[in-house]
Fold this protein.
Amino acid sequence: MADNDVDAWMAAYDNPMKDVVAHVREILLAADPRLEECVKWQAPTFTYRGNLASFFPRSKQHATLMFHQGALIPGDHPHLLGEGKEGRTMTFASVAEADERRTELEAIVAAWIAMRDEA
């Protein structure tokens, strides 16, 4: 579900990766109607019974999503990178790369929602 605060944030966002960020946002929101968004930590954040992911808005070479508890999301998600206890990131250098990862992003959203529903 798109959020007016995020729409306003996107309108004011001045970054060469704006089109990529907007496209990843569209993919995530289309993945499941229960996924919501808001602005937290001065960036769009996607939520469902907790924080799924937030954009790193200052990245200028690629769009970056921080999956707050990415290590806990069930399934095989080869583009979730990181070695930390919980957090993982996924980067997108272009709209085309975001499209290539659409199925993986949809699987992440589905796994997150299923995990949160079991909690």
Q: What stands out?
A: The mean pLDDT is 94. Strands lie at 36-40, 43-47, 51-56, 63-67, 88-92. The first strand starts at residue 36 and ends at 40.
